[in-house]
Write a structure and sequence with these properties.
The structure is a single chain. This protein is α/β, with parallel strands linked by helices. Among the domains are: about 1-30 and about 70-110 and about 270-370, TIM Barrel (Alpha-Beta Barrel); about 380-570, Rossmann fold (3-Layer(aba) Sandwich), CATH 3.40.50.1700; about 620-725, Immunoglobulins (Immunoglobulin-like, Sandwich), CATH 2.60.40. The chain contains 20 helices and 25 strands. The longest helix has 17 residues, at about 230-250. It is globular, with a radius of gyration of 26 Å.
Length: about 725
């Protein structure tokens, strides 16, 4: 996609002029700390130093905030190819000017930053946004993020994260698109298009980086950085497609995962980075390691020392080193000594230069600082509000408690209701302090009459007197509930709400008053011990800048919720990993038969299944039918709005192949369509799927798309639906 004769000729000419040291310099990315694009605390730096993870010089640079500042002479010598963590145009232009005007060859730098779900205007975490079941929202949010970030000199983002995750104990589930391959593939491609646009060289676009290649979301036990071991058919069917969709959408870069895949670290995995990514998928951008992952090959045990790790990684096709200084310190001498071929080095440099040319950095290396800022502008906040509304999921609404009357006497309890900075979620490296709207901010803006008291934070003790005083005159209680831990290095074994918050819910139950629970969290929670204590429950995730306004709009009926879960919710944490599209077994779960695949002490099914989400109206499905035309299977169903409010329904198409050479999932999502219906209105919804979309891989990883009998459902979620059998 990025190869063309004109650019390749320019690269050839430039390569011919470069010394080995200058070539190695292009492979070097520098950041403000040993963990990548953001600074760490002095306490963390000291712990890393005491553990021998960093040198004394690096420790001093971290605590004095000079990790980047001291690199100007290295830039002049052509020994830096990229920076991570610079988020202002003046600093970016300063360093760029040294590279372009003071280095021998004038090769521009590429400035990277973690722009995951917004830059200054923060959108819902990707996991939440996927619940919109509208992949085009990612094109909108990513394009706005690109526009804001590029104004600050950033031209490269480490997103989207295309890792399928079926285990919510993994903190980074918040960065991805959930548990389903089909839905994640749609979202990954749309995010790439949003960041890069139709022309990546436009100054308001960013180069996207698919991460983490590959299968990082399957890390054992939901533990960050842990091993991944799976069959090739499972990898090809479930984990590879979202990465492939992002490559097909034109992603300029790829980040190799921390983990090993079937015993080989992804950073040094030649089969993964060359044979699969480049040869099979046709990727022609460049690959960057994750932070310090090259040197971590020694910990994996596949390299005896750092020299072996460097050799394995460069030969495998890991083109750029994020943060470990492994390439810059060893590679030049290794090439001169014949330990590594200069051809491998040239291939990596060529890939990096290709993207720098594609971004237009050689023609326009500097960021225009004279243009007016779009940061947090009205249009961007409006888009953030609309997407946040689409991302929230109504999990429970007993007796039609929601929407609330704006005249009701309300009590709001829980510290999370007034928090502005927590609702933006993880990986908001450039967010503006207090720029987000809290729930209480939004209630004030709407003119709602309410009484508020924090009463309890996530782990603070419950103030029973404050709770009683706050709720005693209320007709309805809104309980804000938080689970803040999410993101990298936030693997958690228990996903239940904290004991003080559960204690608060117990006290609220005693009042006999209706309770609306509002969840502010970055991952699926185990809610079996909480869901019965509330009358209504809204999953508000970490919705970003306009979080409070989106939640308030739903609570008071100014927006009829449309969100659908992109990930299953367990009753208890010990059910994990949990996902809807599991293979059938020879003894499928049956609560009435002891010798079947289930637990004796907790349900085997999720509390809230994939695709679940309520509305302020009801829908009825009937008259499913199917027909085949030109090797496409078209499935139709009549959907009626049987309630009293207009609403948008997400019709989901699931299949199950009944005869195959490998056990197939009990259901697989293969299509969805959103329709708007007025009360009493009925529409016929038709979704088409190709024969290839019904295919699978056999035990030796051969793709099979032969004729089969299929179970097909047109459904509101993965646990129900109108059913038909078709041979296709």
């Amino acid at each position: 996609m990025y190869k063309n004769s004109e650019t390749e000729k320019k690269i050839d000419e430039l390569l011919a002029r470069m010394t080995i040291a200058e070539k190695v310099g292009q492979l070097q990315q520098i950041g403000p700390s040993p963990v990548g694009g953001f600074e760490i605390s002095e306490e963390d730096a000291l712990a890393m130093y005491n553990a021998g993870k960093i040198t004394a010089e690096a420790y001093e640079s971290i605590i004095n905030h000079t990790m980047i500042d001291k690199r100007e002479d290295s830039i002049r010598k052509g020994k830096v190819g990229s920076f991570i963590g610079i988020d202002n145009a003046e600093a970016a232009n300063h360093l760029q000017r040294i590279a372009v005007e003071e280095s021998r060859l004038g090769i521009p730098l590429i400035m990277g930053m973690d722009v995951i779900h917004g830059h200054k205007t923060i959108f819902p975490i990707p996991l939440a946004q996927t619940c919109s079941f509208d992949e085009h929202t990612f094109e909108v949010s990513s394009s706005i993020a690109a526009r804001e970030a590029s104004e600050d000199g950033i031209r490269w983002t480490y997103a989207p994260m295309a890792d399928i995750c079926r285990d919510a104990r993994w903190g980074r589930i918040c960065e991805g698109f959930g548990e389903d391959t089909y839905l994640a593939s749609k979202c990954a491609a749309s995010a790439v298009k949003g960041y890069q646009g139709d022309d990546i060289s436009c100054p308001d676009r960013l180069a996207a980086c698919i991460k983490h290649f590959a299968a990082y979301g399957a890390c054992e036990g939901g533990r960050d950085y842990d091993t991944v071991d799976m069959s090739l058919p499972k990898f090809y069917e479930t984990y590879l497609p979202p990465y492939a969709a992002a490559v097909n959408a034109g992603a300029a870069t790829v980040m190799a995962a921390f983990n090993d895949l079937n015993g080989v670290p992804c950073t040094a995995n030649k089969w993964l980075l060359k044979n699969l990514l480049r040869d099979k998928l046709g990727f022609d951008g460049f690959v960057i390691s994750d932070a310090h992952a090259i040197e971590e090959c020694v910990n994996h045990g596949t390299a005896l020392n750092l020299s072996e790790a460097v050799k394995q990684s460069i030969e495998a096709g890991c083109d750029m080193d994020l943060g470990s200084d492994a390439y810059i310190s060893l590679l030049e001498d290794m090439i001169r000594n014949g330990e590594v071929s200069e051809t491998d080095l040239d291939n990596s440099v060529r890939s990096i230069l290709r993207i720098k040319y594609a971004l237009g950095l050689f023609e326009r290396p500097y960021t225009d600082t004279q243009t007016s800022s779009s940061h947090l502008c009205t249009a961007h906040r409006s888009a953030a509000l609309e997407i946040a509304r689409k991302s929230a999921v109504l999990l429970k609404n007993e007796d039609g408690l929601l929407p609330l009357s704006k005249k009701a006497r309300l009590a709001v309890v829980g510290a999370a209701a007034a928090e502005r900075n927590e609702v933006i979620g993880a990986w908001c490296c450039s967010a503006v302090e207090d720029s987000a709207v809290s729930l209480t901010d939004a209630l004030d803006e709407k003119g709602i009459d309410y009484v508020f008291s924090p009463c309890v934070s996530e782990y603070g003790a419950l103030d029973r007197k404050a709770l009683f005083d706050t709720v005693k005159e209320a007709e309805i209680i809104i309980a804000a509930l938080a689970y803040k831990a999410s993101g990298e290095a936030n693997s958690m074994a228990e996903l239940e709400l904290s004991a003080p918050q559960l204690e608060m819910l117990d006290e609220l139950v005693k009042t006999g008053k209706p309770v609306v629970g509002v969840l502010f969290n970055g991952r699926p929670l185990a809610l079996g011990n909480a869901v019965t204590k509330v009358t209504a429950l809204l999953e508000a995730w970490h919705l970003g800048t306009e979080s409070g306004n989106a939640v308030a709009d739903i609570l008071f009926g100014d927006y009829n919720p449309t969100g659908r879960l992109c990930v299953s919710f367990p009753y208890v944490s010990s059910q994990l990993p949990l996902y809807y599209n599991h293979p059938n077994t020879g003894r499928p779960a049956d609560e009435n038969v002891i010798w079947t695949s289930k637990y004796r002490d907790v349900p085997v099914k999720p509390l809230f299944p994939f695709g679940w989400g309520l509305s302020f109206t009801d829908y009825r499905y009937k008259n499913i039918s199917a027909q085949i035309n030109n090797d496409v299977l078209y499935v139709s169903v009549d959907v009626a709005n049987t309630g009293k409010a207009a609403g948008t329904e997400t019709v989901q198409l699931y299949i199950r192949r009944r005869n195959a050479l490998r056990a197939r999932p009990v259901r697989e999502l293969k299509g969805y369509k959103k329709i708007f219906l007025l009360p009493g209105e009925q529409k016929t919804v038709t979704i088409g799927i190709t024969r290839r979309e019904t295919g699978y891989y056999d035990a030796t990883a051969n793709f099979i798309d032969d004729e089969s009998e299929l179970d097909i459902w047109m459904a509101h979620d993965s646990s129900c639906g109108e059913h038909i059998k078709v041979t296709f």
